[in-house]
Write a structure and sequence with these properties.
Number of strands: 6
Number of domains: 1
Structural class: alpha+beta
Strand order of the largest sheet: 2-3-5-6
Order of helices and strands: HHEEEEEE
Radius of gyration: 23 Å
Strand content: 25-35%
CATH architecture: Roll
Length: 182
């Protein structure tokens, strides 16, 4: 068995490799093949999760700006059952002059379901159970008084749907459960 000859220290160009002895072959080991379907599935899951994180970041920016530009959030909504009540909520917050300081964060996500698109047209679905943390956010009324209520952490189950092979991911179902903490 050979000794270690290099350390990576986070550098992708350097790797830990055993030194070859006179009796050992120095030919590379065969690379593991990655199933393209599994790789696509993982890429889709990663993209859906990234979209959800971006949605919360954008939502915090909108709320911190008195909901003036809440329409920025429409690009994340992929179903009228999601878009209609949220548009109404954000417009009423805007009209009331309410705002927040800070940011709501998704602190964990678990994929609960993945549905392939049998037509290969890019309409896959990913269901995600998200733990949402609002402890970094304070809500205010128009007069600057603190808005009371809400919970620190809760579970929200999302169904994200791909909008075509090269299209974005959108929220097609949004099921918050304020009674379930995480």
């Amino acid at each position: 068995m050979g000794a270690l000859t290099a350390c990576s220290h986070g550098d992708p160009q350097r790797s830990v490799t055993p030194a070859a002895s006179a009796n050992e072959s120095s030919s590379p080991s065969p690379a593991k093949s990655v199933d393209p379907a599994e790789q696509l599935k993982q890429d889709n899951i990663d993209d859906a999760k990234a979209t959800l994180i971006d949605y919360y970041e954008t939502g915090s920016e909108v709320a911190n700006n008195s909901y003036e530009d809440w329409d920025r959030l429409q690009e994340y909504w992929g179903n009228p059952d999601v878009a209609t009540p949220l548009a109404s909520l954000y417009e009423s917050e805007k009209q009331a002059g309410n705002y927040t300081k800070g940011a709501t964060k998704v602190i964990s996500m678990n994929v609960t379901d993945y549905v392939d698109d049998p037509t290969d047209s890019g309409a896959e679905k990913v269901s995600i159970r998200a733990c949402v943390d609002t402890t970094g956010t304070t809500a205010f009324n128009k007069d600057g008084s603190r808005s009371e209520g809400g919970v620190d952490r809760y579970v929200n189950v999302y169904t994200m749907q791909h909008q075509g092979v090269d299209g974005p991911w959108r929220i097609s179902k949004d099921e918050p459960d304020m009674t379930r903490t995480c």
